[in-house]
């Protein structure tokens, strides 16, 4: 369907996508978790949800954001001197000692593999001076990435009033973090040896899914009394990557595997537009050419339940007309993609080439003949 107008509300449409239920396949997996979500990493589409927007304590899945900020704001090789504050941080730890030196990279492994709360505080102090300053960065970063229902009070997920997230937000944060190649390497590592004061620290990844599910390649466990057993998991199969989040689950590994298998077995990618594909012609006034082709700036792919191409709807928005000069790749429209009336994604439409403006005398001459005609 072609609509001759370019006015849209993309942010509003994005909110619609966030808060509308996903199109699910006929079969839904059994999930014991109190809150869960399954998200396609490439498109950000939600393929399954159960109380996905319910605010809950995230426990150590908080460390996904802590590690991301460390990777974006620090140098992996920089040496960090452990403070008394970091060394005294309780619960799960890698037994840091005040005054010892580790690299930021080693601390990131300590945080993500062994779930070291002390590692997180050391990271926070190195990046932002204090944990309080770092937490402020965490909340700002979360909002930037679209995690609108999250609020963090500390850098490691230890129980605290006002420290919460949602399954959906954790999936969003993780999809973003997985774009970082170092983050990918760390969360898929099963074992790592890092230095200690007089001994070597042998870190075993707490994510048992890496050993029990062939396609698993991340991400992070979390457990507290309030949060219950939690797991943010990722898996890749047939060039598709999915992220599952289960919060307060009696069977976090079983739930995660069921969700990931559900996504791989019941959904598939459908490329709706290819970069450079011609969508239509737009008239050009006062140019050497009377029209320019509108082409897709990028690929547009949607994840659909197997065989359900009938659910896809494209809405095309084009400017009514252009006046030369027109520059190549100038934005002249957009395509919005919907699945079962839920906004999914969009791509710009751009001019396929440049069109120079006619000399003034030729424009006047043309208008003269048009008037007497």
Automatic annotation (TrEMBL):
GO function terms (MF aspect): serine-type D-Ala-D-Ala carboxypeptidase activity
GO BP term (any one): regulation of cell shape
This protein's record includes keyword Cell wall biogenesis/degradation: yes
Cross-referenced InterPro entries: Beta-lactam/transpept-like, Peniciliin-bd_prot_C_sf, Peptidase_S11, Peptidase_S11_C, Peptidase_S11_C_sf, Peptidase_S11_N
SUPFAM superfamilies: beta-lactamase/transpeptidase-like, Penicillin-binding protein associated domain
Residues that bind substrate: 220
Catalytic activity: Preferential cleavage: (Ac)2-L-Lys-D-Ala-|-D-Ala. Also transpeptidation of peptidyl-alanyl moieties that are N-acyl substituents of D-alanine
Listed EC numbers: 3.4.16.4
Domain (Peptidase S11 D-Ala-D-Ala carboxypeptidase A C-terminal) ranges: 267-357
Residues spanning the signal sequence: 1-25
List of catalytic residues: 60, 63, 115
Pathway assigned in UniProt: Cell wall biogenesis; peptidoglycan biosynthesis
Keywords: Carboxypeptidase, Cell shape, Cell wall biogenesis/degradation, Hydrolase, Peptidoglycan synthesis, Protease, Signal
SMART domains: PBP5_C
Function noted in UniProt: Removes C-terminal D-alanyl residues from sugar-peptide cell wall precursors.
Family membership noted in the UniProt record: Belongs to the peptidase S11 family.
Protein name: serine-type D-Ala-D-Ala carboxypeptidase
Organism, scientific name: Desulfofarcimen acetoxidans (strain ATCC 49208 / DSM 771 / KCTC 5769 / VKM B-1644 / 5575) (Desulfotomaculum acetoxidans)
Source organism phylogeny: Bacteria, Bacillati, Bacillota, Clostridia, Eubacteriales
């Amino acid at each position: 369907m072609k609509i001759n107008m370019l006015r849209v509300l993309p942010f509003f449409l994005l909110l619609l996508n966030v808060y509308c239920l996903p199109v699910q396949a006929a079969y839904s997996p059994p999930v014991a978790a109190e809150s869960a979500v399954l998200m396609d990493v490439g498109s950000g589409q939600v393929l399954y949800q159960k109380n996905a927007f319910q605010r809950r304590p995230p426990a150590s899945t908080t460390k996904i954001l802590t590690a991301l900020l460390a990777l974006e704001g620090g140098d992996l090789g920089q040496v960090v001197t452990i403070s008394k504050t970091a060394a005294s941080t309780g619960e799960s730890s890698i037994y840091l000692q005040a005054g010892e030196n580790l690299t930021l990279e080693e601390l990131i492994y300590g945080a993500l593999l062994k779930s070291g709360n002390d590692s997180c505080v050391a990271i926070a102090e190195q990046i932002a001076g204090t944990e309080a300053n770092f937490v402020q960065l965490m909340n700002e970063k979360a909002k930037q990435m679209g995690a609108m229902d999250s609020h963090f009070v500390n850098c490691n997920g230890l129980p605290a009033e006002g420290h919460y997230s949602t399954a959906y937000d954790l999936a969003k944060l993780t999809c973003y973090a997985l774009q970082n190649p170092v983050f990918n390497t760390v969360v898929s590592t099963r074992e790592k040896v890092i230095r200690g004061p007089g001994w070597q620290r042998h870190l075993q990844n707490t994510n048992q899914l890496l050993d029990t599910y062939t396609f698993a390649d991340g991400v992070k466990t979390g457990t507290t009394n309030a949060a219950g057993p939690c797991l943010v998991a990722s898996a890749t199969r047939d060039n598709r990557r999915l992220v599952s989040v289960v919060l307060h689950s009696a069977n976090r590994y079983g739930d995660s595997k069921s969700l990931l298998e559900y996504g791989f077995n019941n959904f598939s990618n459908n490329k709706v537009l290819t970069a450079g594909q011609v969508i239509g012609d737009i008239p050009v006034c006062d140019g050497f050419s009377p029209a320019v082709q509108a082409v897709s700036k990028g690929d547009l792919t949607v994840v659909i339940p197997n065989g359900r191409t009938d659910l896809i709807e494209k809405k095309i928005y084009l400017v009514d007309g252009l006046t030369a000069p027109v520059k190549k790749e100038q934005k002249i429209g957009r395509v919005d993609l919907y699945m079962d009336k839920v906004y999914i994604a969009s791509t710009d439409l751009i001019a396929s080439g440049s069109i120079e403006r006619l000399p003034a005398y030729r424009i006047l001459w043309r208008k003269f003949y048009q008037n007497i005609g």
